[in-house]
Amino acid sequence: MKKIDKKIADAYFHARVRLIAVLLVIWFIVSFGMVLFAETLAQYTFNGFPLHYFMGAQGSIIVFILLLFVNAYISDRIDEKYNLVERKSKPAKGQSFQS
Amino acid sequence: MDSQFLVSLTLIVASFGLYIGIAVYNRARQTSEFFVAGRGVPAIYNGMAIGADWMSAASFIGLAGTVMVLGYDGLAYIMGWTGGYLLLTFLLAPQLRKYGRYTVPEFIGDRFQSKTALVIAAIATILISFTYSIGQLAGSGVVIGRLFEVDAKIGVMIGVVIIAIYATFGGMKGITWTQVAQYVILILAYLIPVIFMSLQITNNPIPWLSYGNVVSELGALDRELGISEYFAPFDTASKWQFMALMFSLMAGTAGLPHVIVRFYTVSTMKAARWSGAWALLFIGLLYLSAPAYAAFSRFILMKQVAGSPIDSLPAWTEKWVNTGLLKMADTSGDGILQWKEIAISNDIVVMATPEIANLGIFVIGLVAAGAMAAALSTAGGLLIAISSSFSHDIYYRIINPSATERKRMSVARWSILIATVVAGIVALNPPGVITQIVAWAFALASGTFFPALILGVWWKRANAPGVIAGMIVGLLVTLTYIFLAKFGGFTILGIIDTGAGVFGAGSAFLTNVIVSLSTKPPSQKLQDEVMDLRYPEQLSYKDGEVWKDDKVI
């Protein structure tokens, strides 16, 4: 155990919260936003679909999946930046180990 | 016995032999392994296991039919059931993992230092999982009943026996690897018919790209018939109902006990994040395909079935008409079956379409095997959640804290068995269609766990009286609204029973905040524990200082 500067720990926390806030704003726009303006979107067509239908059936879901991968990737970078990469416990040879 | 029966039976038996074989091979030996599989599952496989747990009878059997019947309004299920993963992964999973409790009730009990909160949360877990598993068992009854041409009730009983055997003896370790196998089978079973139909109708093997034009064409066909277009928004329910249902499904996803526990089955937070991302990718494959399935089914029904003479309908129609789930009557008396004269139940669209499109006995059997995997895998996860809530949270922590591990194991196994049998009995006469029953379970989760968990990890001022009052109010408001909307015809802004969670969650948040603020703040120790959740797993917060653990975790 070693003590680390609380400012650094809090900077880490704020970096994570900022990331989550940005991702959730995008999440809100592609889900609730697309439903709120469904009638407007219905006037446009994309790849054969009326646009509101495309967003509900494909667009939003693809954005959701991308957001999760973006989060996993950026969170790994944040962990690296703050030198907080987790190490997996590996049992030594011939030793039984339970995490 | 026709060849279809033999092919379907062989495929189902072979796939279940595989799952049970894996479960027996991995048979759990220790309690900690029984519940969270020893925390040693790689992210991508854990993602598949989450996917199989997640994709239930509602997703596999019910979803495409719901989208086909409701049109655009059915997409609330698609967006809701996928979007909830973001709330779960961003707002709850890291904190719950760091807190390190096996079950959600245990988290609530320890975070608020209250046995009352623990018991209420355990009861809510049992109620939610139980409601949900009724839907699953009812789904398995429909599949088995149709397949063996026996009554759906006998189908339910067969399902109960199978699920009881492998959930009782496999535990979650068995189930994690079983789930991976189930995911592979059920996604193949879902994609193959969609791809074949796409080739048949559009000559394009990629359904996700090809079905847009089919959707537009369906709208054109509807205009000719003078009915509202397939893709017209808010045709069957109000815009508020769409958003309430979507919210309810999202918040319910974030609060579902059997999904949250999967984030404990990997060894690091990093692995948990990647499992969540993989899980949504694997789940998304099915959810992106369901509206395509729906569009192709409707197209085939409109173009190939509607318009044919009533006395020379294809052979498959009779079998489905006999189940009572498909009605075709020449009400206009012109000798021709019109589109408006076909009444098809949501729950048979996925099962019947491969027959309608004449995709061959192998594909039809595969879809049956996939549907069984979907129904029983989710039921497995749910029954584990019921069993751990009872044996761990109620029995071990409240009734008999000195119980030996052996005794707890036996209570866990007995509670799985009893829960399966009771859910099976209710499923003999299901109180609604599959998607509806499952939507109630989500409404209950969003009214009880979602507010309790969000406030519990993000707001250190939330205290025991607040969470107890919040969960009770949320539960009562949700239940009351479901019953009033379903049986009393009472609705607000056109929001029906399936969207009840929005009122439950709203009132629970409000109650929790007001009661917490008007009672004593939690002890400094508890507030410090909530502060500690801000930091990653290898940092700990003590007396205003942050410490880093350099040792392996």
From TrEMBL, chain A:
A Pfam match = DUF4212
Give the record's keywords alphabetically: Membrane, Transmembrane, Transmembrane helix
- Membrane-spanning ranges: 20-38, 50-74
Record domain Sodium symporter small subunit: where: 10-83
Q: Which InterPro entries match?
A: Na_symporter_ssu
NCBIfam families referenced in this protein's UniProt entry, alphabetically: Na_symport_sm
The name of this protein is Membrane protein
Which organism's genome codes for this protein?
A: Guptibacillus hwajinpoensis
TrEMBL record, chain B:
What GO cellular component is one of the record's annotations?
A: plasma membrane
- Classification of source organism: Bacteria, Bacillati, Bacillota, Bacilli, Bacillales
- By its UniProt entry, which CDD domains does this protein fall under? SLC5sbd_u4
Report the protein name in the record.
Answer: Sodium:solute symporter
User: Which residue stretches, if any, does this entry annotate as coiled coil?
Assistant: none
Keywords on record: Membrane, Transmembrane, Transmembrane helix, Transport
Stored InterPro entries: Na/Glc_symporter_sf, Na/solute_symporter, Na/solute_symporter_VC_2705, Sodium:Solute_Symporter
GO MF annotations in UniProt:
transmembrane transporter activity
